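Morning F.,

Quick status update on the modeling queue. The single chain you submitted on Monday has been processed. Sequence for confirmation:
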Amino acid sequence: MPRQSISLTEPNAEWVKSQIESKEYTSMSDAVNDLIRQARRQENDQLGKIRSMLIEAEKKSGAARPQPEVPRRHMGFSKTKVYR
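Structure tokens below.
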């Protein structure tokens, strides 16, 4: 696992320290990794809800789904140009 150095504000450092002391986390790394996992999970859940809402709205409106844009680099070209 890559080693990183981070700085925390005093209130955040105290909160993490209290979590470690209460045995919620075993280390600062454990706490930070768990909080990042939670944030990523929450972000993915939100994106999933938004996608579902957009799909439902498209179904109700009868609108056709737009085709995703394909950058030229995926077609074997070096410069990025978008084709539809």
